[in-house]
Design brief:
Blueprint (H helix, E strand, L loop, with lengths): L1 H36 L5 E10 L6 E6 L9 H8 L8 E4 L10 H7 L8 E3 L34 H10 L3 E2 L3 E7 L2 E7 L10 H4 L9 E5 L5 H9 L4 E4 L28 E5 L16 E5 L18 E9 L3
Parallel strand pairs: 1-12, 2-3, 3-4, 4-5, 7-8, 8-9, 9-11
Antiparallel strand pairs: 2-12, 6-7, 10-11
């Protein structure tokens, strides 16, 4: 009887060890896919957005966000350079370009061909402060917002000068107007809401009826900014920051957004109106703004993984509103 008991214990131990080894191997496989394959599997998302006046010519808007670029990331840089072949009429950059203090020249080189196009940009937290190690569980709490003062400052002024010198419009807490293929496009932007650098009091104004379209641009899609843009008549709002959740559950989606927007809007095209954060999407009014949130092109060097959330750039084809 004692021998049988020992034998049974031994078999159970071996079974448990086998199961543990299998789970461990599967976990390593998922980690390998997320860190080596998927985070470099760049994709172009395409959406048609009905926001222009009747009879207007379609416009192609390329949205790039969250490069988190290191100078050594040549594959990412080459892929972004290839986006110029999409022939966009306007480029919108929603920030977090840098991942190191020496990355500004690499970012400007990466954007070399796109900088020849009309463009606008805002800044994200990782255009101000270098990445730091964080407990990932913080993203499930209200403590995920940090001022970043303990992080190393990045050469923000060099980045802003480099992008602006090539003609892109800096929308850091300011408004402007562009003429794109003969159409007046008003643009409004804020500094990074994640760091609470946004100054909505400096940019709020009703959308002008003389513009074909007013676009609101922000790095992080916090509800206070989205509500203000929608109230003021921005027909299209463009944001980044969320990384689409970055590590998602297949068939389920994002678990976190790193801001106060819901996970259903962590990436992609949706509708937004004042108070949308506490209302079902089915109650969207006819004049609700279109909100496009990019999952972005990179990751922090301290968390170089993506799962069920490929890195992306977005091509928006703006067309006349449907009657």
């Amino acid at each position: 009887m004692r021998a049988l008991t020992r034998s049974g214990l031994g078999s159970g131990l071996r079974l448990g060890l086998g199961i543990g080894a299998g789970v461990g191997a599967a976990g390593l496989g998922v980690l390998g896919w997320a860190s080596l394959i998927e985070r470099n599997a760049f994709v172009i998302r395409r959406y048609e957005v009905p926001v222009l006046p009747a009879g207007a010519e379609p416009l192609r808007v390329l949205h790039v966000s969250d490069l988190h670029l290191l100078p050594r990331q040549r594959k990412k840089s080459a892929w972004i350079k290839s986006l110029a072949s999409l022939d966009p009429d306007l480029v919108v950059n929603t920030g977090d370009n840098l991942a190191a203090a020496d990355a500004v020249p690499a970012v400007l080189d990466t954007f070399e061909h796109l900088l020849a196009r009309p463009g606008v940009f805002v800044l994200g937290s990782n255009d101000y402060f270098g990445p730091t190690l964080k407990n990932p569980l913080r993203y499930f709490t209200r403590r995920h917002v940090q001022a970043g003062s303990a992080s190393r400052r990045l050469p923000t002024a060099d980045l802003v000068h480099g992008l602006g010198a090539q003609g892109w419009v800096d929308l850091t807490n300011r408004r402007d107007s562009l003429t794109v293929r003969g159409q007046r496009i008003d643009v409004v932007g804020v500094d990074d809401p994640h760091l609470r650098y946004d100054r909505l009091d400096l940019v709020r104004a009703p959308a002008s009826p003389d513009a074909a379209l007013t676009i609101g641009v922000t790095h992080a899609p916090y509800q206070r900014v989205l509500d203000a843009y929608a109230t003021d008549g921005c027909a299209l709002i463009i944001a980044g920051h969320t990384h689409g959740g970055q590590v998602c559950v297949p068939g389920w989606g994002a678990l976190v957004t790193n801001c106060d927007i819901d996970t259903g809007r962590a990436k992609g095209l949706s509708r937004w109106w004042p108070g949308a954060g506490s209302a079902p999407s089915s109650s969207a009014p006819a004049d609700a703004a279109w909100l496009e949130v990019s999952a972005g092109l990179g990751t922090s060097p301290t968390a170089p993984v993506r799962l069920a959330c490929r890195p992306e750039a977005t091509l928006l084809t703006l067309v006349p509103r449907r009657s």
